[in-house]
């Protein structure tokens, strides 16, 4: 089976086609860094998509990853329940990567992904200096992922296919 990875970018905040916030939905930054929370979010959101590369990390590696200044985490809530999250990673060249993004399984298909991605892009552009926001997704991700990125104004700049 071949897997295609799509790399997308936004080079101007005016390209954002934001989706409005659904009623009962909120997105809040986890300003107090706690690696165990990031690990929980990674497992909750990533389980259906086989996010497994970090599951074997020891606590110290998780802490080094999640509690550094170059990483920030936002959590989406719907009526008090964790609905999803995203992590933004500031890079030395002025880019901001959407490192992780997704919804918890019970919230997929309920119209929340467009607004959550809008929030991710807005927050990335606020993290100065930001010259570009980028992300990658692949054919193993949810069928709507690529379309959501493009609908919000991101453009594919590279694709890779592996067998």
From TrEMBL:
Highest taxon of source: Bacteria
InterPro entries registered for this protein in UniProt: Acyl_CoA_acyltransferase, GNAT_dom
A Pfam family reported for this protein in Swiss-Prot or TrEMBL: Acetyltransf_1
GO molecular function, one term: acyltransferase activity, transferring groups other than amino-acyl groups
Residue ranges of every copy of the N-acetyltransferase domain listed in the record: 28-163
Name used for this protein in its record: GNAT family N-acetyltransferase
